[in-house]
Structure formats: structure tokens, C-alpha cells
Amino acid sequence: MSDSIPSAVTAAPCCNDDCCPESAEKYVHQTVRDGYARIARGESSSCCGGADMDAGQFAQNVGYDAAELDALQDGANLGLSCGNPTALASLQPGEVVLDLGSGAGFDVFIAASRVGPSGRVIGVDMTADMIERARLNATAFVQRTGIDNVEFRLGEIEHLPVADSSVDVIISNCVINLSPEKTQVWQEIARVLKPNGRVAVSDIALKQALPESVRSAVGSLVGCVDGAVLVAETASMARAAGLVDVELAERDQNIAAMDAWHDPLYREIETQLPVGTAPVDFITSLSVSARKPVSI
Q1: 1 part of a folded domain
Q2: How far apart are the C-alpha atoms of 190 and 184, rounded to whole Å?
Q3: Residue 7 belongs to a domain
Q4: pLDDT, tens only, 58-108
Q5: Torsion, CA 265, CA 250, CA 235, CA 246, rounded to 10
Q6: Which of 28, 229, 274, 275 has the most beta carbons within 10 angstroms of its beta carbon?
Q7: What is the pLDDT of residue 229?
Q8: Any bridge partners for residue 97, and if so which?
Q9: C-alpha to C-alpha distance for 171 and 191, rounded to whole angstroms
């Protein structure tokens, strides 16, 4: 495994010969938090993009427009994307937007420009170092644009620090797959959305189960893969939370973009796959859109 990210073990410490679910969840959270704190402090490179790539070019390869990238201040794009949820969301002026796992503010600032001064964008991240970096970027964003409509809150996406029925649109980019409690995340999404509010998520998902050789050899949790679930499971969790009009789109070209940039994680996965297969045979970038019904 490349030393560009901290290696994440998939098994949590156990007690009394049995793994304790609560301990496992805490372990996963701490592993992810530590990994992204290192990225925020500049001690590691991107977990999802290649260590030797240009983050702006990579973002274009997974669906971002060059003009909106050029308008971002330095330090907002850490190369953590696996798709473009802001494009999927079709944001409108005046809307309230929530970004789950907002990192340094990349999608928050793009969304903020789209919803304008009458709108509001809230970023939630569980890593204090990311929140600190995002707030510094927010100061630069306000100075550059004159738009003061963003805020960043420290919190976990399984327990959002956001009021019930208060958000028009929820976006997220390559984050939900990292959660050990994905069902709870989708329930929280449904809780904080306004009636008729919508979801636009880009995430890593599995087309088929990863071979055991990959799961045992690659500490890939912070690398956006090991926590991923099957595509059908994502749809089931969204519907079980009460969301409707659930639509999924597999964007294999985004995985191919990571592969093409010689991402160290994908290079390592490739060495463990059956002969004649590639990461794109097992992993996809999944776009998920859904809506909260007027009555839930």
C-alpha cells in the first residue's frame, strides 16, 4: 500500500473473543478521522485521486467544469471527488444546501455561487482539521466574491447537527461509503430534508463483492473502497429511509479516471484482482438522486 494515506485495517479491535459493534463503529470513525486530518494538514495526498496528479484536471475528469474550478480559491480542491453532485443537484438561487463530509469546502463553494446571496450552504465534517481549513477558505471566498452564505459545522453524518426539515438539497461526494452506519446516514438525510427536498450524491459503490484477496490485502477504508456496499444496497437504504424517486447511475468513467492517473490505491487493488479483471469490474462511481415526499 502506498504511504500516501494511512493504512486502514478493516477489522476493529475485539473484546471477549467477539467484536463489539460499538467499538467497531468507533474504530472506523477514528480511522477515517485520522486519515482525513492528515490530508487536511498536508501530510498526505488525496485518498481518492492519484498522488502524482493535478487535482484540477482530475476534477474535470470526474465531471466538473473548468470555469467553476478556476473560480475556486487555492486549497479548496483536495482531489477527494468521485463525481460532481452539484451538477446532479441542479441548484437554484435561494436554496439551503447541506454538504455531507464537506472537507475543505470544495463542493460547498461551488454550491454557494449557484444558490447566491439569498441561499445558504452548510458543510458538515467530523474532522476538526478539515473544518479549520474550510473556515479559512470561507474567509477567502467571502473576500473574493462578496457572498457570505456558507458555514461549516463539526459533526458526524450519522448524527447531523442540523434541524429537522430545514434543508432543500443534500449533496455528498465520496463520503457516505466511509460510514459504518450507512442506514443511519440515510435516515438522517430524510430527517433534515424539507418535504419535497432532494438528494444528489456521488459515492463509491460495488458492482459485485470485492475478492477476499483485495479485502484482506488492502487497507482501503480511507481510500474510499472498503466501506462501499453494493449498488442495490444503496437504493434499498434510501427507500427504507422514506425517500422516493430514487435513481441510480453508474459512472464507470470516473473510476477509469482514477485508474488512468495511476492512483496508488487502485494500483494496489489491481495487483490483487483475478487475472484479466480491473478495478472498474468491481467498483463504480455511483450518482444517487432521490426526493423526500411531502408526507413521510
Answers
A1: no
A2: 10
A3: no
A4: 565 555 665 665 556 555 444 455 667 777 789 999 999 999 999 888 889
A5: 140
A6: 28
A7: 87
A8: 121, 169
A9: 15
**How do the residues of the chain divide into helix, strand and coil, expressed in percent and rounded to 5?**
40, 20, 40
Residue 172 lies in a domain: yes
Alpha-carbon distance 63 to 254, whole Å? Answer: 8
Number of domains the chain contains: 1
pLDDT digits (tens, 9 = 90+) for 198-239: 999 988 889 988 877 776 554 544 445 667 889 999 999 999
How far apart are the C-alpha atoms of 122 and 153, rounded to whole Å?
7
CATH of the domain at 218: 3.40.50.150
Query: Which helix (H) or strand (E) element contains residue 194?
Result: strand 193-206
Query: How many of the other CB atoms lie within 10 Å of CB of 267?
Result: 14
What is the Cα–Cα distance from 237 to 239, expressed in whole angstroms?
A: 5
Record the cell numbers describing residue 213, joined without a space: 484477496
**Of 115, 82, 83, the residue nearest 98 (C-alpha):** 115
